[in-house]
Write a structure and sequence with these properties.
The protein is of the alpha+beta class. The chain contains eleven helices and six strands. A hairpin with a 2-residue loop joins β4 and β5.
């Protein structure tokens, strides 16, 4: 049977705890021999070739394209938004991971006060994120609550790694989209030359003549629609300049019936087939975009809702 801890031993342990907790925190942030901070505590997406710095460069390329061709590129804006969200998620998870690891380090230091040096301290100071957790060893040295926190750390490590890879993938998608558009310079220039800017018309609710013609033809051929929404004052893109309409297949954010989905698909296909005559720039339908400057259906990011993802309406933008 172990002898009870003496008042002197207790005082010593408290002094050690006061020194050990900040020491463990420092170990978690200590630079490696090469001078770099432990990679498990630095947002990986920010350090990778596809990180936020690269995203800034790609954003400038998008702006340059829009300035040169006097138009917006919804496909590129969507890819940029998706990359921004993925990087934000990766950084948030990285902060959560750092906080959870420091908490476990404090738990390990506290255990030293009551039962001696905990080998977990050594494990937590590793530069290898996967080495933070050794379930069998750690479970034998921490209480149930501590083990739960360690399991949380492992989950955060897995989530953060997945988020980092997703961010890099989104950046790669954006790079690919920009490269694809740049390869279509000749096509884009011909389209810009063919479809000179169309003026807004007084008496047509601020819509351009080109959009009025396209809207009326769609409505005449496929209407009536539950609602057709066009001008949206203040919108920074085509709805704000009178060059876009939404042909609703349902209302109140409800998913359209199977018949209305088929109807929307017919509308989208007809607009593509008549794009050259009507001056169609792009169409969005059911979380996909078809841009005449780079033809072909492409998937879009999940914006979190039926209307936001264009499941209840066909979006039409004209030059």
């Amino acid at each position: 049977m172990e002898p009870p801890t003496s008042p002197v031993d207790g005082a010593v342990r408290r002094r050690v705890l006061a020194l050990l907790v900040p020491l463990v925190g420092a170990l978690l942030l200590v630079p490696s021999a090469s001078g770099a901070t432990s990679p498990s505590l630095v947002p990986q997406a920010a350090l990778s070739p596809g990180g936020s710095n690269n995203l800034d460069k790609l954003a400038k390329q998008i702006k340059a394209l829009e300035t040169k061709y006097g138009d917006d590129f919804a496909q590129l804006r969507d890819a940029k938004w998706a990359a921004e969200q993925a990087i934000k998620k990766s950084k948030t998870l990285q902060q959560d991971l750092a906080g959870a690891r420091i908490l476990v380090a404090q738990m390990a230091a506290s255990q030293y006060i009551t039962s001696g040096v905990d080998p977990t301290v050594t494990m937590l100071s590793t530069d290898d994120p996967s080495g933070v957790l050794d379930g069998a060893t750690l479970a034998s040295h921490l209480t149930r609550n501590r083990t739960a926190k360690v399991n949380q750390i492992q989950s955060l490590i897995n989530q953060q790694d997945k988020a980092r890879k997703e961010a890099e993938s989104k950046i790669t998608d954006l790079q690919r989209s920009i490269k694809d558009l740049l390869s279509q310079k000749s096509r884009m220039q011909k389209l810009v030359t063919k479809y000179k800017p169309s003026s807004q018309v007084i008496g047509a609710s601020g819509l351009t003549a080109r959009l009025v013609k396209a809207r009326d033809e769609v409505d005449s051929r496929f209407g009536p629609f539950p609602v057709i929404g066009c001008l949206r004052p203040g919108d920074p893109q085509d709805h704000g300049t009178g060059r876009a309409c939404d042909f609703m297949e349902s209302t109140a954010g409800r998913m359209p019936t199977a018949d209305r989905v088929a109807h929307g698909t017919q509308v989208a296909a007809w607009l593509i087939a008549n794009a050259s005559r009507l001056g169609v720039k792009y169409i969005i339908w059911r979380q996909r975009i078809y841009d005449m400057r780079s033809p072909g259906w492409r998937g879009m990011s999940d914006r979190g809702g039926i209307t936001q993802n264009h499941f209840d309406h066909v979006h039409l933008s004209v030059f």
